[in-house]
Write a sequence for this structure.
């Protein structure tokens, strides 16, 4: 992609002379590359590495005198930044990759100072080994992309191959620290972490402390309530608290606290388990039986909201759970645990963003508090909702509008149940549940539901509500027919073809049971600008629905996929543009910026 006129105005005539001089030198002296001016060597933090342990690696660059390379975050996006990529292999996880801060230096060919590395900068990273690795000598392999320049010319970019030799010993055997003078600056300097929200949180911890970071994580959890998975949680919460007999505000509030603690405990345990085991968060929901079971449960609750029956737990059980109607403290805590499952398909991406942070600390207590803060943010609105739903007993229950509101929750629960059933058995049609529910729900709630017919005001309000719901349903149905990005199924040969034809690649790792994946398909990948900008890419869909199959496991390890959706960009040389990686749903405007960064940085 050509640079914009604005960018060209930032280049002086000296830049053109520099390029001409570099071209002349290439013809006069033979091919020149950056590898002749930059060397890299690896140093470890320990002499021997026990299997199952975590250790640190320093990649020390040696840049020739009078030369420099662009930093990892170059001043302009058309400059080639320094990047390091460790080759993926089984039993090895790389976390907390940190680049040094660039020096801002002025050069004759540029109007503004540029962010560059000179001398001997150091790149740090943390590596975790599986306890299943066999003892003996081993080598990790990495590739570093650099471009060397002096004050006159820039050499052709090079990919340096870096070998990281190590000796693995048995788990529990002793090792000794080495190179302490090098690694003493790891914790103090910090540097520039790799991109991603997990690194942003890590940077907040290092700069502002854990308290501010935990509040930021709490806000992320709060934002999860904007995802579609929480709608069933809202309906179930109102159903649980709206049927209890307690009318004292303080006691209702305490019950809401216990209920939210159930939600919090569910996600804290799931999050810590995912962080310590490295498994795909929420992947157990890929089972059609689990999804179908949730769908049946929601429809059962919906029938109760339509007045077909009243759900009440057996007396012998409720008497032991702290209440005669199933709304005692213990039963509400258990209810929170169960209700929390409904949102699991949407909570995966932010959890993935925190996994690297937790893995780099290797501290289960820290992991607990990180996910406790996240799930507390998720559960906080239900503290308010549960409290005020419980106070509905103070309002006269004979009003027709209350019956109609209960029918609204019945429609929402029915739609949610059908959505989960569709995910279980016909995932490709699950997106059609939303317009279907809006149109039929609007027709039923606005014109067919009989409550309040004798009251003109309520009847007119129901008509307006029904018309609006049907209109939104029709608009949603039309949106589903919009053309989207044309994807090809993943194949290894297509990656080789992309390198030969010098085309960038975009890969969408998805699963049929992944709700944010559906959002990407229906909102982002139907955007005209996204379709147009990715037309020059080879666009591949990678199906991880059966994530534990040998094929899916191999792809996840190769591309370091912690969860879905994940969008991976490869440049024209076949190297990943790590700063453009997308985890979770991203709106069209932000996705466009990711695409432009990859297209504009390709050599």
């Amino acid at each position: 992609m050509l640079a914009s006129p604005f960018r060209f105005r930032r280049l002086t005539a000296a830049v053109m002379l520099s390029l001409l001089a570099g071209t002349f030198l290439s013809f006069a002296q033979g091919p020149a590359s950056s590898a002749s001016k930059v060397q890299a060597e690896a140093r470890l933090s320990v002499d021997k590495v026990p299997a199952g342990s975590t250790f640190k690696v320093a990649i020390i660059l040696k840049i020739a005198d009078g030369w420099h390379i662009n930093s990892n975050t170059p001043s302009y996006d058309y400059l080639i930044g320094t990047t390091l990529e460790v080759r993926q292999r089984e039993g090895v996880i790389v976390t907390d990759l940190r680049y040094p801060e660039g020096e801002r230096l002025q050069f004759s060919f540029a109007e503004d100072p540029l962010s560059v590395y000179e001398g001997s900068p150091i790149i740090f990273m943390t590596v975790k080994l599986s306890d299943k690795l066999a003892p003996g000598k081993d080598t990790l392999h990495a590739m570093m992309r650099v471009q060397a320049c002096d004050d006159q010319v820039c050499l052709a970019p090079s990919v340096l191959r870096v070998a990281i030799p190590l000796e693995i010993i048995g788990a529990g055997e002793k090792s000794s620290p080495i190179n302490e003078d090098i690694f003493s600056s790891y914790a103090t300097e910090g540097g520039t972490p790799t991109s991603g929200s997990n690194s942003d949180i890590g940077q907040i911890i290092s700069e502002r402390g854990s308290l501010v970071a935990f509040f930021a994580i709490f806000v992320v959890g709060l934002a999860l309530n904007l995802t579609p998975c929480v709608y069933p949680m809202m309906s179930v919460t109102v159903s649980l608290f709206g049927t209890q007999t307690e009318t004292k505000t303080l006691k209702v509030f305490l019950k809401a606290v216990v209920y939210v603690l159930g939600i919090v405990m569910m996600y804290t345990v799931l999050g810590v388990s995912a962080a310590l085991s490295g498994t795909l968060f929420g992947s157990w929901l890929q089972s059609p039986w689990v999804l179908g079971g949730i769908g049946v449960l929601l429809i059962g609750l919906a029938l109760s909201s339509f007045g077909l029956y009243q759900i009440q737990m057996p007396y012998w059980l409720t008497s032991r759970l702290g209440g005669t109607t199933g709304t005692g403290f213990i039963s509400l805590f258990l209810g929170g645990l169960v209700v929390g499952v409904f949102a699991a398909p949407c909570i995966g991406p932010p959890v993935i963003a925190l996994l690297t942070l937790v893995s780099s600390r290797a501290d289960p207590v820290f992991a607990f508090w990180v996910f406790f803060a996240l799930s507390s943010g998720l559960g906080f609105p239900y503290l308010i909702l549960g409290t005020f739903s419980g106070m509905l007993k103070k309002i006269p229950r004979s009003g027709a509008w209350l019956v109609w509101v209960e029918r609204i929750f019945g429609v929402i629960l029915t739609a949610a149940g059908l959505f989960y059933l569709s995910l279980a058995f016909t995932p490709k049609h699950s997106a059609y549940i939303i317009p279907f529910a809006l149109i039929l729900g609007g027709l039923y709630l606005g014109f067919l539901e009989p409550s309040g017919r004798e009251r003109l005001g309520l009847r007119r309000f129901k008509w307006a509500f029904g018309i609006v719901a049907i209109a939104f349903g029709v608009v949603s149905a039309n949106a589903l027919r919009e053309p989207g990005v044309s994807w090809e199924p993943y194949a290894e040969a297509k990656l080789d073809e992309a390198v030969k034809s010098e085309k960038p690649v975009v890969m969408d790792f998805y699963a049929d049971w992944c709700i944010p994946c559906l959002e990407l398909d229906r909102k982002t990948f139907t955007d005209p600008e996204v379709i147009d900008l990715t037309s020059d890419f080879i666009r591949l869909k990678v199906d991880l629905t059966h994530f534990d199959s040998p094929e899916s496991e191999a792809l996840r390890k190769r591309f370091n996929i912690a969860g879905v959706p994940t969008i991976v960009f490869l440049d024209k040389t076949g190297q990943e543009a790590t700063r453009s990686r997308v985890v979770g749903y991203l709106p069209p405007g932000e996705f466009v910026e990711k695409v432009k960064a990859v297209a504009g940085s390709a050599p």
In short: Residues 212-425 form one domain. DSSP finds 20 helices and 18 strands in the chain. The two ends are 9 Å apart (CA to CA).
